[in-house]
Design brief:
single chain; alpha/beta; seven-stranded mixed sheet; two-stranded antiparallel ribbon
Length: 208
Amino acid sequence: MMNSNLVPFDPYYKKRITYVWRGQQFAFDVAHTIFSSFQIDEGTDLLLRLIEPAFSEPQRILDVGCGCGVIGICLARRFPQADVTLVDKDLLAVRYARHNAELNATTNVTVLGSVGLSEAPPGPYDLIVSNIPAKIGDYAIEHEFILEPLRHLRPGGEYWFVVVSGLNHLIPRLGPRHNLRLKEIKKRAGHSVYRIIAPAATMPTGGL
């Protein structure tokens, strides 16, 4: 576990980014090769400013593809009663997300290395979030970042995610294709935020 005083000596360390969300100050140390290492990604910021889950006090939250941990750590601060799990396939991202959880005193965060959700604790989760990577291909996005997370939601749970506008050719088609309760929450230059609500009874399985 990295100590905040030692981070500048880490060979991958790039800089510390400050971020204000819901009136609270956060700090995130980032590495050279981690996604969005210059500033908080605009899609991440848009998602965080829009997310309002129906469960006012979610007990279990999952951040898929967490990067350095911005979304999950912010939600852990907002919902201190929740058990928040962050997963990423990049072990350097995992290392920095763990450090940033400590840096921001979010003791309710667990960070795990995981390809997709293979190592994530089993659901159900009340809330799942993701800034979906754009360059992994339509099939992987559909199956690994849309349908698979839905398997881990509790009935009535919510999946909030943001995508770059280049994926708007794909995401809206997935609603009718898999009978999903999919809604576009907001479109802003470069990004769109969506929400899927899991059915009250059976999880979607079409196409798997």
